Amino acid sequence: MTSTLHRETVENRVFRASYLALLVFMLLPLFVVVVTSFSQAGRLAFPPESYSLVWYGEFFESTRWLRAFTNSIIIGVGTALLASFLGVTGAFGQELDTDDSLGAILQPLVLIPLLIPPVVLGITLLMYFSEVGLRGSYASIILAHTLWATPLVYFVMRSVFSRFDWQQLDAAHDLGAGPVRSFVHVVLPNVKHGILVGALLAFIISLQEFVMALFLSTPSTTTIPVLAWTQIRQALDPMVSVVSTFLILISIGAIVLAAIATNLEWLSKQLS
Amino acid sequence: MSEITLHDLEKQYGETTAVEDVSVEIRDGELLCLLGPSGSGKSTTLRMIAGLETPTSGTISIEADDVTDQPAYERNTSTVFQDWALFPHKSVLENVAFGLKMRGMSKDERHTRARSMLERVQMGGYGDDDPTNLSGGQKQRVALARSLAVNPDVLLLDEPLSNLDKRLREDMQIELREIHEDLEETFVHVTHDQDEAFTLADRIGIMNEGELVQVGDPDEVYENPKNRFIEAFLGDTNFVDAVVTRTSSDAVHVDTELGTELVLPTDAEPAVDEGTGLTLSLRPEILSIDGETGRHEPAGKQAVATDGSAHNAVTGTVENVIYRGSTVRYSVSINGSSMFAERTDASTGAHAAGDDIRLEWDGEDVLAFSDDGTRVTL
Fold first, then answer.
1. A174 vs B78: CB contact, 8 Å cut-off?
2. Looking at the partner chain, which of A98, A185, A272 has a beta carbon nearest the beta carbon of B88?
3. Interchain contact, B73 vs A272, CB within 8 Å
4. pLDDT of the residue at B349
5. A97 touches chain B (CB under 8 A)
6. Does B176 touch chain A if contact means CB atoms closer than 8 Å?
7. Which residues of B touch A168 (CB under 8 A)?
8. What is the rounded CA–CA span in Å between residue A146 and residue A159?
9. Tens digits of per-residue pLDDT, A261-270?
């Protein structure tokens, strides 16, 4: 059977195959992690000899893990709130600034934390927070994570605000709404999905951040990645897989939520 | 009811001056049209009255209160925007009620008032609709209702009709005019469309390059334009270059590019010297076409009354004929220059390309401008 394949068809197939291979290569570790979390044995092996939910039971009985889980959620939510506030107000302020002098300062400034290695940031912040008496607090880790999450929220909001019809803000002012009320009644309803996406991004960033949290956390504020790391150093048991599975699920959940939010916005635009 | 005073208003954006030296008193209850080409500063002036732009210098007062430093949300002005700027996430009724909500009116009260405003603009049945689903004309009505609902001291209209098609625009002009007469409120309407300004305005303010060139009644600015820009902007006209050859006690004689000497009567001793360059404006409506006599004379031949009377005429060849619905426009070549004349009744005295025709006019109707564009009163 000889069939001449067009060059384009071949290219397409090769492209798809490579893309699929890349995807499999990237997702395989996740698959391994999830499978091993259902292992019965106390040793991390793939594939597991037998399957059970025994390590999930262990997780829910372990106060250390539950504590770390709660800490991660508290810090994640705190980071999401703070980074959203800073990112949204920063991007909004820059839009209102007519001669763009604010943007010239703000844009590079916001990016700086992303360019500094997290180890350097972690050590520096540890010294700084010890000095001001914030060491060991949730606030210290929330602030550190906010440094990373704010640029992302900021750039998401820049793009969201660029699609906003600013004449609406004029109309709101014109009809008697002051700065706060015009933001709440007119700007917010138009950009709320964008803010949700930004906040979820910030939450995911915080949830998985390890290096700065390692420097800044104390036993009472240990986050999941930090506890996982300390546990792995002692024993490589399937508990790490269970915890990782939870992290993966939370991240996927957040991404799905963000996708739904953006699609709702897209959908409402399509209908109009 | 109010009176607005703009005093030496100026707005600069960095190095560019958008509005310069604008001073005008807007009368209580009048409909003033700010007319000018795009970029002439008319919208910026309107936005300064609304408080959406802060003047670089100068003052704005409404009802004798200086509001220059008052933000838009504290001024009792209301704007209908060019793209209407309806809130897409609110229903039509909520849009109209928004200003009343901001003024602290109870929900029942503001919804009742919003409904009556929607009735007023013939949008009564659309309260629950999503504004994004409305047509341009409907959006325009809702925007108008939203602005009128707050009972503003002055209604500002920033080219709200420019995005509508011609037919709808003309209907809306009439309707706007009626609403204005009904409410007896002060309206300031910005437009680049001369016809719209003449249809709507009690007075017209003509802007060019950031300056308010002339303010006056429509017939006044049309018949007595202050400079060449206004004459050109308000309607199609023939500009003819001329040089003063001779002055007498009651007339100015000029040599024109048409190859003929024309006589412009004056009321008093002429204020121009011999040799002065002028631009004459011959509007199509002052030209009468006389084909019968024209046909017997060769093209370009001088046919001017030399008795010093106001009667002037030239003869030329029709180059092309354009039917423009109610009028027919002839492009006429006269001694190498081109002029146009119009006939309103297409059926009588039709001329074809190649015909010789004679254009006549009363010298008193000709306007003259000096080289720098200012009007020369003869």
1. yes
2. A272
3. no
4. 61
5. no
6. no
7. 85, 87-88
8. 20
9. 777 666 666 6
- The residue to which tokens 């996982």 are assigned: A228
CA pair distance A88, A164, nearest whole angstrom: 13
Does B132 lie at the interface with A, CB-CB under 8 angstroms? yes
pLDDT at A268: 62
Closest partner CB to A178 (pick from B73, B85, B90) = B73
The alpha-carbon gap from B261 to the nearest alpha carbon of chain A, in Å, equals 56
Nearest to A141 by CA among A224, A84, A199: A224
High-pLDDT (> 70) share of chain A, %: 95
Hey, of B102, B146, B153, which one would you mutate to test binding to chain A, going by the most A CBs within 10 A of its CB?
B102
pLDDT tens digits for range B325-343: 778 888 999 888 888 888 8
Instruction: Describe chain A by its helix, strand, coil percentages, rounded to 5.
Output: 80, 0, 20
Residue type at position B88: P
What integer is the mean pLDDT of A166-180?
93
- Beta pairing class for B31-35 and B57-62: unpaired
Exposure b/e, A168-189, CB count within 10 A at least 16 = b: bbbbbbbbbbeeeebbebbbee
Task: With a cut of 70, say whether residue B85 has pLDDT above it.
Answer: yes
pLDDT for residue A139: 94
What are the structural domains of chain B?
4-233 (3.40.50.300), 237-376 (2.40.50.100)
Subunit contact B102:A99, Cβ cutoff 8 A:
no
Pair B300, B335: CB distance under 8 Å: yes
**A272 to chain B nearest CA, in Å?**
6
Average pLDDT rounded to a whole number, residues B231-248: 89
Which of A165, A174, A178 lies at the smallest CB-CB distance from B52? Answer: A174
Quickly count: other Cβ atoms within 10 Å of residue B109's Cβ: 11
Q: What's the distance, CA B50 to chain centroid?
A: 22
CA A126 vs CA A81, A137, B250: distances in Å: 22, 11, 96
- A199 Cβ contact partners less than 8 Å away, ≥ 6 residues apart: A80, A81, A83, A84, A153
Interface test with B, best of A98, A175, A264 (most B CBs within 10 A): A175
- What CATH class does A55-271 carry? mainly alpha
| Distance separating alpha carbons of residues B318 and B330, to the nearest angstrom | 6
Interface confidence (ipTM) of the complex:
0.81
Residue A115 burial (10 A CB sphere; 0-12, 13-18, 19+): exposed
